[in-house]
Amino acid sequence: MNQVRTDILILGSGIGGLTLALECAEWADVVIVTKKSRSESNTNYAQGGIASVLAPDDSLDLHVRDTLIAGDGLCHPDVVDMVVREGPPLIRRLLDLGVAFSRDDLGALNLGREGGHSRRRILHAADQTGREIERALLAAVAARPNIRLFENHLALDLIIESRLLGTGRPGAGAETAWGAYILDDASGLVEPFMAAVTVVATGGTGKVYRYTSNPDIATGDGLAMGYRAGATVGNMEFVQFHPTCLYHPEARSFLISEAVRGEGAVLRTLDGRAFMTDYDPRADLAPRDIVARAIDSELKRRGESHVMLDAVHLGEKVLLEHFPNIVSTCRSFGIDPVSRPIPVVPAAHYMCGGLVTDPDARTDIHRLLAVGEVAMTGLHGANRLASNSLLEALVFAGRAAVTARGLTPGTRVPRPVPWVAPPGTERKEKVIVDHNWDAVRGLMWDYVGIVRSEERLKSALARLHLIRDEVASFYRRFPVDADLAELRNITLVAEMIIRCATGRKESRGLHFTVDHPNRDDKAFARDTLLSSAQGLRLGPPVAHASEAGVTEGAPS
Ligand SMILES: Cc1cc2nc3c(=O)[nH]c(=O)nc-3n(C[C@H](O)[C@H](O)[C@H](O)COP(=O)(O)OP(=O)(O)OC[C@H]3O[C@@H](n4cnc5c(N)ncnc54)[C@H](O)[C@@H]3O)c2cc1C
Predict the structure, then answer these.
(1) What's the per-residue H, E or C state across 153-199?
(2) For residues 510 and 96, what is the distance between their CA atoms, to the nearest angstrom?
(3) Ligand 1 centroid to 351 CA: how many Å?
(4) Nearest Cα to Cα of residue 342 among 321, 314, 317
(5) Residue to mutate, 225, 374, 389, 484, ligand 1, most ligand atoms under 8 Å from C-beta
(6) Rounded CA gap, 458 and 513, in Å?
(7) Is 150 helix (H, G, I), strand (E, B) or coil?
(8) I need a surface site. Which of 81, 145, 239, 521 has the fewest CB within 10 A?
(9) Could you report the per-residue pLDDT of 214-246, keeping only the tens digit for each?
């Protein structure tokens, strides 16, 4: 058995995992496992930037207030306060690492403004902020000999004490994590990686839906692994959809920025009718959620697959000046926005829910921490304020490092138990795996998307259970590969989303159901919690927005 033992095992090499690794490398041996190449992550595709209070006319209180308004009564105010306050020094750390944020002619940081932010506070590196952050973090990691990074290694499941010692069912009581079983893509072998502390930093879940802005890695693996091991997940019904992703069979996840509508582009149905005035007096400039819901409603009503974003009247000069990347990418797919409207669909963009953590990044499994998009920290509540997610990952990575340091000294990591491979040899029915991938993603898009109903949720769960049982049977019988492992995970994450959505009988933030179209603070100003041991339940009342001195409705 090819054994890896370390102090800190980090699953994922996005902003959360890499920041944490650098912090821990000051005092510990660190292993990072990442399932594709080292830079392939949601972080790498982040465009807008990272929010932090740096402008003289801005204040921490204003950033807190904007975050609470967006979160629609479900943010945890103490967490919001903590994240916003801890942000600015961490931005300075990124600058020290060499992150080249955009600057103005005088060399001052160029702060952008985005929907929902009352001040300019978005640090960005042109429209490739994530790529620049990822580049700088990877360079710093490469310079630390006590960080080992395994590319093309996929974490399958956590190694938990009850399974090691054979003492019962995961989730039945207090659990401890001691690492993870890791699949080496090259050899096809699964090995135990043992650690005193295991950190899940596996990012988001966009691939659960047919249309997503996320890259292929976003299959919710960490969430699924945590849940299977007995951890509590929360608020999985709050999936943020971006209103306009390019609709083209080969353009897997290309976003058409909301700034195009900001410049005057108009959404139309396939027969050319501008429909946004039917939904909101602000028409195409309505907040993101309203636009996404309006498109969804038109698609469902008309039975069509996409709508058109018409920017033709803006003219070639404006389009090329403001959106050179969008124009060239569209042209590369044979669509010229200068002469014809761009086909678009809304796309799953960000998961506000996740593994429930405390302010020190602890899950409810001992020695298991979670940072980044995979975690539900209480920052976002029912809707994420733009550019707060990179900030959240930075802050919680720093806090996780402190927690990990307290857990590491003197720990005796148990002896590993080898992975038991299923008896089957080669898997012959790949078509079933492929079909089920499409089935889960299509089901979630059609039944559990932007606008929900009890009928559709019920039907989706019944259909999903059939797929889940088929996938489980495959998993038991045949050797595992990445495709099958990820299918198993998206199926479980889809189930979590449906179950949490079913439990929230109101509409709030990103969760909208036609059966309960209003917000109900009396019954539902609470997090939705789900675990294998306790099933679905509501958490204690969250101190909601009005208590935190915020009374306005949610912005974009
Ligand atoms: C197109 C786009 C634009 C965005 N723009 C912004 C923005 O402007 N501002 C903002 O704040 N946020 C933005 N976001 C969201 C933000 O990028 C993410 O929330 C954030 O980068 C998440 O960081 P992370 O470290 O948690 O996860 P990620 O960066 O997604 O990293 C996850 C890592 O885990 C690895 N992994 C996953 N599963 C496994 C497994 N089973 N085994 C081993 N490794 C695994 C992945 O390969 C990857 O390395 C955007 C997202 C997208 C998709």
Answers:
(1) EEEEEEEEHHHHHCCCCCCCCCCEEEEEEEEECCCCCEEEEEEEEEE
(2) 36
(3) 10
(4) 314
(5) 389
(6) 13
(7) strand
(8) 145
(9) 999 999 999 999 999 999 999 999 999 999 999
